[in-house]
Amino acid sequence: MIVIDNLSEKTSKEFLVKFGEVVKKQRVIKNLTQKELAEQVGVSHEWICKIEKGKAKTISLNLIYKVKEYLEIKEIKI
Q1: Which of 39, 12, 1 is nearest to 20 (CA)?
Q2: CB distance 65 to 25 below 8 Å
Q3: H/E run at residue 77
Q4: Is the distance from CB of 56 to CB of 19 less than 8 angstroms?
């Protein structure tokens, strides 16, 4: 589940940063490299790096879902 209370440009950026933090934490827990995760979800490892650093300006809902499912992320709260 992804919970965002008030949708705004600031909230979108906060979500992207938080999502990146959660992705990195879960990836490390699962002992995966960025490259391994990238291959599983169909993007470059550079893109995973951008996501984890909070540098991605946008992320498709499809990619969020794929990453969330693969890493078994249950909830992201903003």
Answers
A1: 12
A2: no
A3: strand 76-77
A4: no
Burial class from Cβ neighbours inside 10 Å (0-12, 13-18, 19+) for residue 1 reads exposed
What pTM value is reported for the model? 0.85
Most distant pair of Cα atoms in the chain: their distance:
34
Per-position DSSP letters for 16-61, written without gaps between them:
HHHHHHHHHHHHHHTT--HHHHHHHHTS-HHHHHHHHTT--S---H
pLDDT tens column, 24-65 = 999 999 999 999 999 999 999 999 999 999 999 889 989 999
Contact predicate 54/3, CB 8 Å: no
In angstroms, rounded to a whole number, what is the distance separating the alpha carbons of residues 25 and 51?
Answer: 12
